[in-house]
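Supplementary Text 2. Reproducibility record for the structural model of the 148-residue chain.

All settings were left at their defaults, and a single model was retained for analysis rather than an ensemble. We include the record here because the model underlies the residue-level annotations in Supplementary Table 4.
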Amino acid sequence: MEEEGQIVAVCLSTTKGEKKRPVEGGMLEAGHGLVGDAHAGSDRQVSLLAVESIEEIRRRGLQVSPGDFAENLTTEKLALHTLPIGSRLRIGPEAVVEITQIGKECHEPCAIFYQSGTCVMPTHGVFARVLRGGPVRPGDRIEVLLDE
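Retained model, structure tokens:
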């Protein structure tokens, strides 16, 4: 398993329940989440999803992009959903997050589920709390911290 990858997209929305849109970058705030995002300050401060999981849905013929699954950070080359809860990740030059949840219960099927028969967030979506804040933008490195 790769122990590092990179950020493909930073996404946010100001309203809960809608797709997030990619932005040039953002600020992760300790104990809060992605500044300006509707889910910041909740139990799920930051959500992450690997682009490889998005590609699974693309192979089913759907046109989906980063943010369509309401994730804040789209990553690549790091199998986030296989990491244990409590794993810590450094994102960009300063930020550190801790994985608090893997997957989520979907209370009702989303449009993607109806179109493809599946959704990746219940099994591949990862949620984290921000331990140390810092800037984050596409191209930033994300790495598993083994001794922090």
